[in-house]
Structure formats: C-alpha cells, structure tokens
Amino acid sequence: MAKTQDAGKRPHPGALHFMDRFRNFPCPLLNLQPTPMHHRNERSLDLVTLLGDDETKILTADNYGHTVLFDAASYSVVHFPKLNCSKGYDAMAVSINRAAPQEPDCLYVLNLRTHPTTSNHCFEVLSYGGFCERIPIWRFLPPPPFTTTTQTTITSYTVVGGDTIYVSSKLCGTHAFDTMVPPRGTKDDQQVPWMPPAIPVSYQDEYS
C-alpha cells in the first residue's frame, strides 16, 4: 500500500527549479570570503565580535591589526582605526556599555597567549560613543600583572557586575580588571585597575 501511495506522488522538482524563478537578484551589498588558515605572512582574522549590545554592528580584526566594522542595519562597512598591536588568533574581545550617556562605551581586547617580552602590548581598549559624536581611539592598558614575568595562556574570561573583567590562567590564577578605574599617575605611583588574584592558584588547580 505504501508503495502505491509513493508511486502516486509527484517527484520534488528540487531547489534548482525554484532558483530559476529568481533570475534577477539584486547586486550584493557585501561579499564575505572565508578566512584562510593562520600561516606566516598570510592575513587571517584574529577576532570577530559584536560591538556592545547592538547586534547589528560586527567588528573584525586581522593579524595585522586592521579593524573593520560591518553595520548590518545600514548595510555599510566602516574602516576603524588600526590596533596599536595585533592581539593574536582568538583574542579576547569584551564590550562594556556605560550607563551614563556622556561616557564612551569601550571594547577591551587582550592577547590570550602572553609573554613577558610583549606584555606591554597585549591589552588595548577602543573607546567609542555615538558614531557621529566620537572618533574611536585604541589605547594601551596596563597588562595583567602576571604577564610581565610569566609566559602563560589565559584560558577563560568573563564580565562581572557589568564593569569588571575577570581573566583566569591555570598557572597564575584569576585576576580582575576594574574598568571604572582609569590608569593614571607616574610610573612609580600609578593607579592600576588590576586587582590581586581573586581565587588562589592552589584552589583553582584543585577544581579546574
């Protein structure tokens, strides 16, 4: 009986049959190409992230530090300022949105594979506000304290309370960065927004 019913059904014409009905597609507004594998002297994407809470704005950065913003709402591409230094493949990208309208929102980017020789260039922030009001600026931030003496990999990160970034490494424990404390002062007397380890290394190693 089942064979008789199947035999009476008309065969599906397939997707190509329906595609023939749409011969005159509009010209594409954006052409996306897959990023190549990460090799020496070959451009690849280090990070792709939403810019803040706005799900229509996507920021990308390649391994040369070039940044580009794609606005899906207006179908436009905006060339952003270049990073001061590339942050490596799969870098951390965390957006902090300020409640006060006069304060700029910020995107924090951190190299997850740290080394003492490059620690001074591993952490940057992009300050931006209304795109018609402020010119986005990348600037260096004080690196996590352990990066100046230890080569390690940051394995996880998160935002707590809307303004504090926590980064964790199995070798160095968990440290917190308070984005509300701007680094300032002299080299010997500087207000550094990094707080001491939030979780002892021995505790983290035991339960990680």
Give a written overview of the molecule.
It contains 3 helices and 16 strands. By secondary structure, it is mostly beta strands. The strands form 5 sheets. Strands 1-2-3-4 form a 4-stranded antiparallel β-sheet, with no helix packed on it. A 4-stranded antiparallel β-sheet has the order 5-6-8-9, with no helix packed on it. The protein has one domain. It has helices at residues 2-8, 15-19, 201-207, and strands at residues 45-50, 57-62, 67-71, 76-80, 92-96, 105-110, 113-114, 123-128, 137-140, 152-153, 156-160, 164-169, 173-178, 184-185, 190-191, 194-199.
> Quick one: overall form?
elongated
Number of strands: 16
The spatial strand order of the largest sheet comes to 1-2-3-4
Largest sheet: 4 strands, antiparallel
Radius of gyration: 23 Å
Order of helices and strands: HHEEEEEEEEEEEEEEEEH
Mean pLDDT reading? 75
**Helix count?**
3
End-to-end C-alpha gap: 59 Å
What class would the helix/strand composition place it in? mainly beta
Unreliable segments of 5+ consecutive residues = 184-191, 200-208
What is the count of structural domains? Answer: 1
Characteristic terms for this protein:
single chain, DUF1618 domain-containing protein, 3 helices, elongated, disordered C terminus, about 35% strand, four-stranded antiparallel sheet, DUF1668_ORYSA, mainly beta, about 210 residues
Topology record:
Layout: H1 2-8, H2 15-19, E1 45-50, E2 57-62, E3 67-71, E4 76-80, E5 92-96, E6 105-110, E7 113-114, E8 123-128, E9 137-140, E10 152-153, E11 156-160, E12 164-169, E13 173-178, E14 184-185, E15 190-191, E16 194-199, H3 201-207
Antiparallel strand pairs: 1-2, 2-3, 3-4, 5-6, 6-8, 7-10, 8-9, 11-12, 12-13, 13-16, 14-15
